[in-house]
Design a protein that fits this description.
This protein has about 500 residues and is mostly beta strands. The chain has three domains: about 150 residues, Immunoglobulin-like (Sandwich), CATH 2.60.40.420; about 140 residues, Immunoglobulin-like (Sandwich), CATH 2.60.40.420; about 130 residues, Cupredoxins -  blue copper proteins (Immunoglobulin-like, Sandwich), CATH 2.60.40.420. It is globular and about 65 Å long. It starts with a strand and ends with a strand. The N terminus and C terminus are likely disordered. The longest helix is centred in the first third of the chain and has 6 residues. The chain has three helices and 38 strands. The strands form eight sheets. Strands 4, 5, 6, 8, 10, 11 and 38 form a seven-stranded mixed beta sheet that branches. The chain has a seven-stranded mixed beta sheet with strand order 18-17-14-20-25-22-23, with no helix packed on it. Bound molecules: CU-O-CU linkage and copper (II) ion (2 copies).
């Protein structure tokens, strides 16, 4: 294992440990008070789109190599969509038909998965939809779910960590006509701010292949500040890190309102001082600001007690907000967000158990040729997910958004009261989730479920399920060769 220790911080005498490909950093990383917020926060541009003859909104994403000077260690080689690092924000409305032309300008195979999107399995962009170098993959589907902050990223078998870590990721924001969305801050880049948070280990012009890094990038900006001009700002937080879990909050621990999680608005806003996000999870917050103030968004230590396992004691200064001398008043946060489609456990007809341990799920490693679960279309299921391990995991399900029924046998906290597609599992933790598989049967093309700590995912901590018509059998799935790759052009 390669390990480099760097003594930094005349200020705090803090050890920063860059772990390279190492599995654990036991020295604590603490950048509180040490970040020079010298760069304006970059806002990913909204992706351009055209409406084609079939009435579909068409986007183009080109995966390519690039270079970026983050202000750390000179110019760094990166990957990005339509640019050097990360990708544009795709945006579409509920009910719209969309198509994305994914062009692979890399020298190796990749894929693009629409994380959190409810869509046919052949459009999902997982390991069964590889895009060869030079090829274009053009999935098309109808947006059929509530407004939410989703994201996209490669999902090539065994190489997701590498591709995401090098910069291939972006947001996919969905809109709808819910009245609450009209009064919540929604001016993108002004009072509605995407925050893609990633820890990085940069060295000699390369983003190192790492599990945890010592520097934070927000939308690819190192040491960012944001000029605030409104009295409330909506933050769309995405943890797009390889394995690090964060506990975000304002430095003065002021109450903020959690309005949405992975799959959309909560039933009602929840007042919190911190929000924990494990890799892949999103949260939307509305933060109040006072005229003229400067205040830092921080990541507090996500785990209390014990040694610094998986960065559980690390803390970071993330972003500085600089409020103008006069702030424009923007929309209030309603007391409740309207009807919430609560799934009823009494309607569930199937129970399944998933045991997370090491890099296995139910003692098995991912096999592209094996179907682990066959789900009948139209059923509601309850899945019990147990982390029997001493290390942290999480659990992500493709195809559907789910609801959390219990955490360690107890009613979940209000912050877990909405739609989720990824849920954190601390050591020895247990969550029960309820899922409804309303449509998109395809016996031959599976969806994935997996741990979203990307090194675990790449190491095989993943399984596959197909959704079939009632009474139908699972079909024949292949590996990444020999089956339908979707529409390939070019
Ligand atoms: Cu965000 Cu299967 O992935
Ligand atoms: Cu996903
Ligand atoms: Cu894991």
């Amino acid at each position: 294992m390669r390990r480099r220790s760097v003594l930094t911080g005349v200020l705090g005498g803090t050890f920063l440990v860059a772990t390279g490909t190492g599995l654990s950093a036991c020295a604590t990383i603490d950048t509180v008070g040490q970040v020079d917020f010298a760069r304006p926060l970059l806002i990913p541009p909204l992706a351009e789109s055209q409406i084609d003859d079939a009435g579909r909104r068409v986007f183009n994403l080109h995966a390519r190599r690039g270079h970026r000077d983050f202000g750390i260690e000179g110019t760094t080689s990166t990957l990005g969509f339509n640019g050097d690092y990360l990708g544009p924000t795709l945006r579409a409305r509920r009910g719209e038909q969309v198509m994305v032309n994914v062009v692979n300008n890399l020298k190796q195979e990749t894929s693009v998965h629409w994380h959190g999107m409810h869509l046919p399995a052949r459009c999902d962009g997982g390991p069964h939809q590889p895009v060869r170098p030079g090829a274009t993959w053009s999935p098309a589907w109808t947006i059929n779910q509530p407004a939410a902050t989703l994201w996209y990223h490669p999902h090539p078998h065994g190489r997701t960590r590498e591709h995401v870590n090098q910069g291939l990721a972006g947001l996919f924001i969905l809109d709808d006509d819910t009245p609450a969305q009209r009064v919540l801050p929604h001016d993108y880049g002004v009072d509605d701010i995407p925050l893609i948070v990633q820890d990085k280990s940069l060295h000699k012009g390369e983003i190192r292949d790492h599990n945890t890094g010592d520097r934070l990038l927000v939308n690819g900006t190192y040491g960012p500040y944001l000029d605030v001009r409104t009295d409330r700002v909506r933050l769309r937080l995405l943890n797009a890190s390889v394995s690090r879990t964060y506990a975000f909050g304002l430095a003065d621990e002021r109450p903020v309102q959690l309005i949405a999680t992975d799959g959309g608005l909560l039933p009602a806003p929840v007042t919190v001082t911190r929000i924990r996000l494990s890799p892949g999870e999103r949260a939307e917050l509305v933060v109040p600001f006072r005229a003229g103030e400067r205040i830092v968004l921080r990541s507090f230590p996500p785990a209390a007690g014990g040694r610094n396992f998986d960065g559980g004691k690390d803390q970071f200064d993330v972003l500085e907000f600089r409020a103008a001398a006069r702030l424009r008043h923007v929309g209030t946060v309603p007391d409740a967000f309207g009807d919430f489609d609560r799934l009823d456990p009494a309607t569930a007809t199937v129970n399944r158990d998933f045991k997370l341990n090491g890099t296995n799920i139910n003692d098995d490693q991912m096999d592209l040729d094996r179907i682990d679960a066959v789900v009948e279309k139209g059923t509601t299921e309850i899945w019990t997910v147990r982390n029997t391990d001493g290390q942290r995991h999480n659990f992500h399900v493709h195809d559907v958004q789910f609801q959390v029924l219990s955490v360690d046998g107890e009613r979940p906290p209000a912050a877990l009261g909405g739609w989720k597609d990824t849920v954190f599992l601390p050591p020895k933790g247990e969550v029960r989730i309820i899922l409804r598989f309303a449509d998109y049967a395809d016996p031959d093309m599976p969806y994935m479920y997996h741990c979203h700590l990307l090194m675990h995912e790449d190491d095989g901590m993943m399984g596959q399920f197909v959704v079939v018509e009632p009474g139908q059998q699972a079909g024949r799935v292949g590996g990444t060769g020999g089956h339908d790759h979707g529409q390939q052009a070019g």
